Amino acid sequence: MLLSYGVALSFFIFIESFRRVIIQICESNTQRKDRELVATMLKIDQRMKQYVDHRDGGPLVLTHIYLLIGCTIPLALYRSEAIQFVDASLTPLSGVVILGIGDTMASLVGVKFGKRRWFQGTYKTIEGTLGATLSVCILCFAFWLLDAKANVNALLGALISMTLSCLLEAFTQQIDNLVLPLFHFALTALLQHQI
């Protein structure tokens, strides 16, 4: 899995760099025969930039790269020899669970049903956070039911770390695709060690 993440990350970095170079060439070379190519590349650039928020400024669109790194880091930390006390339940998949399930559900529920914003100046809603928390806690409970070795303390620790990670997603101003998996992994490891 780490190898596939590494290959995908290399591919994403290459494609994004290539896309940016092509955009620069198209912007500087506007001869008559190239106008169609220039218009097409600029439309692609506009489409990509519509999914960018204030944290992803600059000429490159890095959101998808941050997402892949966020999914990779917990697995890499889990596989490292430095961390031996973490159980294998959902911890190596922290990035996939928090970002793939939680962050996605927060967006879907927040856009569809969100009425109350956490605070002025944010698009994040209380309903979106509740949707994220509920979805990851249901997934966590399902994994707990399937794991024959899991105990109630492991479930409790996982539910606490999932809930706090969803709350962090609502309030962080950082790049959540990087921060949330690290926070969840560290909190889960701490709770497993303490409970």
Structure description:
Helix 5 (126-146) runs antiparallel to helix 6. The model has no long low-confidence stretch (mean pLDDT 79). This protein folds into two domains: 1-61, no CATH class; 85-195, no CATH class. The two termini are 29 Å apart. It has 195 residues and is mostly helical. It has seven helices and no strands.
In short:
The chain has 195 residues and is an all-alpha fold. It is built from seven helices and no strands. Helix 3 runs antiparallel to helix 4 (94-113), helix 3 (63-79) packs parallel to helix 7 (176-194) and helix 5 (126-146) runs antiparallel to helix 6 (152-171).
SSE sequence, one letter per element:
HHHHHHH
Oligomer: single chain
> Which structural class do you get from the secondary structure elements?
mainly alpha
Number of strands: 0
Beta-strand level of the residues, as a percent range? under 5%
Radius of gyration from CA coordinates: 20 Å
Which percent range fits the helix content? over 70%
Continuous helix count = 7
